[in-house]
Specification:
heterodimer, A: 459 residues, alpha/beta, Alpha-Beta Plaits, 3-methyladenine DNA Glycosylase II, Chain A, domain 3, four-stranded parallel beta sheet, 11 strands, 37% helix, B: 138 residues, alpha+beta, globular
Chain lengths: 459, 138
């Protein structure tokens, strides 16, 4: 089913936004404008990559999450942890300490996301064997990338492998395992600890699948602080509760750069950071790049270790997970008798469930109009406007580039008077008064910024 | 709508610029993705041909609601035997060009497969003109 907008985890808090336009300038899909002194998000263009969140100087961009106390609505409360959560902690904090604090905080079970990796890797191999005609296959692991392809590279949508991430695979298994132990579905709450906004958006509005087995989402930065504080206060003494069965290093590194491509056969390439991905996809779309079997694409630099909700330095997190994962374990770590059964028991069931059944459809943001003749008229208008604009991409008009302003004008969302260069010329010709140009500036940037400079004495 | 692009012979760092531009235009015009793919592949191959073989060239593009017409006019060595050049795997590309991953002899056959009309005229020592059309409802 095609709908025009996505559910977004990123929200702009108008009360906090100071209209500084930092977010507008870094958005890779030009989804942000400034109006009345506040950033405004174009829902159809945003892919939830979180670049805006990183640069906001006043934390006015927030990421939707479930209230922590929501876990207590459920009898069985599962914390579903990705390995990058472990990687946030210094190596002298053991996995057992982390897990036991989580249980003290109120969870009844802790399960690691990467338990689902091996099953997914097998599913990828099987899918690749069935689709030898499609090259390259693109991983669907990073939800921001899936959305980026939907809006910006619609012709590559069919190359995306419609397979669920380890997160969903693990969650399906948890539900099944707890059910076997007597838990009703509605009594089970599975809470994913997310390193990014895109994962939240994907859980609340899964691409191509109607519902998600995950109950809610907890942001990694908040949970890290809760856990680390407890660990610190307890003066490094680990508590007695044991953890689940250990994962292999290869499984643990799945969400890092090259983590997926290490599992697949054939010629594969791993690209992280959204601008790098865009540059590569441009070339791929032109068929300038051929003979690649598999593409692992991630929106964040250093993949999930660089997620916008992580706290630890991304290079350190990646290094810890790659080289020191054993340090997090202690010799007497054993699976807890009450813990969730090993995922291998659900293998056959999960392999049947791993494929996303409905189609991932394109949602192009590029088109100027549905109707081609009308789109051509609008494009001609854009081209005429572009002849008049200064091409400095200063952003004073409230749009990130001259091209973006020209399109906004052609689509009826802005006026050519928004351009400061045009204003000056019109003023000189006597076609706009000084008061009128100040009013335009105020319309874009609000009153605060223009009122600041009324009195220049004393500088 | 009419567009023109200049092509510089021998400069592979800019090869593909015109096809990228055209791709962006066609996306904005809401042209079917399958049609865009054919157009871009055909134009890219033709563009690389000029960069690989000719001295300079101009691409003329005309778009209406039924078709996309592309004409590439180059000043260059020309093609002595067009029929031979159309064969898969045939190439006169230099070793240098081949080392850059081009010159596999797939260019013209690929253009033919991705366009609805193709006309190549050439004069040895003067240059080549490639005219191709892709229909939107083909």
């Amino acid at each position: 089913m095609e709908h025009n907008t996505f559910h977004h985890a990123l929200k702009i808090r108008e009360d906090l936004c100071i209209g500084c336009s930092h977010c507008m300038n870094v958005c890779p899909t030009e989804a942000i404008r400034v109006k009345h002194g506040k950033s405004v998000l174009y829902d159809d263009r945003c892919v939830d990559c979180g670049e805006c969140f990183r640069v906001c100087p006043v934390s006015a961009i927030i990421i939707d999450q479930d209230d922590f106390s929501r876990i207590f609505d459920f009898k069985y409360r599962v914390a579903l942890l990705p390995s990058v959560f472990t990687g946030q902690f210094p190596e002298d904090v053991s996995l057992r300490q982390i897990h036991s604090v989580l249980l003290e905080l109120g969870f009844t079970h802790v399960f690691e996301v990467e338990n689902g990796v091996e099953i997914l890797a097998d599913a990828i191999k099987a899918y690749a064997a069935r689709h030898t005609d499609k090259k390259p296959l693109i991983s669907s692991f990073c939800p921001a990338i899936v959305r980026l392809i939907q809006v910006k590279f619609p012709s590559l949508v069919d190359n995306i492998m419609p397979l669920k991430p380890p997160l969903d695979i693990s969650a399906i298994h948890i539900r099944k395992s707890l059910k076997q132990q007597g838990a009703a579905d509605e009594e089970t709450g599975i809470f994913y600890v997310t390193p990014c906004a895109a994962k939240i958006a994907a859980i609340k509005d899964p691409v191509g699948d109607p519902d998600s087995p995950i109950t809610g989402v907890i942001n990694m930065d908040i949970l890290f602080s809760k856990v680390f504080r407890q660990v610190k206060q307890r003066n490094q003494q680990s508590c007695a509760l044991p953890v689940s069965a250990p994962l292999s290093g290869k499984e643990i590194c799945w969400s890092l750069t090259n983590g997926e491509s290490a599992w697949v056969e054939g010629r594969s390439l791993a690209i992280d950071e959204i601008h790098n991905v865009i540059e590569f996809l441009e070339k791929l779309e032109n068929e300038e790049i051929t003979d690649i079997d598999f593409l692992e694409l991630r929106a964040c630099d250093e993949s999930c270790a660089g997620g916008v909700l992580t706290i630890s330095n991304r290079f350190l997190t990646a290094e810890r997970l790659r080289n020191h994962i054993d340090n997090y374990r202690t010799d007497d770590d054993n699976p807890h008798p009450d813990s969730i059964t090993p995922i291998s028991e659900s293998r056959d069931h999960l392999l049947k469930k791993v494929e996303i059944r409905s189609k991932i459809s394109p949602r192009s943001i590029m088109k100027l109009d549905e109707n081609m003749a009308e789109a051509m008229r609008k494009m001609e208008k854009v081209n005429r406007i572009m002849q008049l604009l200064p091409m400095v991409d200063c952003g004073i008009c409230g749009a990130p580039t001259c091209q973006a302003l020209a399109q906004d004008i052609a689509l009826g969302n802005a006026s050519i008077n928004y351009c400061i260069f045009i204003q000056k010329i019109l003023e000189q010709k006597g076609e706009l008064s000084l008061d009128e140009t100040v009013a335009i500036m105020q319309e874009i940037w609000g009153f605060g910024k223009t009122n600041k400079y009324r009195d220049l004495k004393g500088i | 709508m009419h567009f023109e692009f200049q092509i510089e012979g021998g400069n592979f760092s800019k090869a593909g610029a015109a096809s990228s531009q055209l791709k962006k235009i066609l996306k904005q015009l809401n042209v079917d993705v399958r049609v865009i793919k054919r157009v871009v592949v055909a134009l890219y191959e033709a563009e690389v041909n000029i960069v690989a073989h000719a001295w300079e060239g101009i691409i003329y593009i005309d778009i209406d609601t039924e078709k996309i017409e592309m004409k590439l006019v180059d000043k260059g060595p020309g093609i002595a035997d067009i029929e031979l050049a159309m064969q898969q795997g045939y190439s006169t590309a230099s070793q240098e060009v081949r080392e850059m991953g081009f010159g596999a002899g797939m260019g013209l056959p690929n253009i033919k497969n991705n366009s609805d009309l193709l006309k190549i005229t050439s004069e040895v020592g003067t240059g080549t003109t490639v005219a191709m059309t892709v229909y939107l409802n083909s």
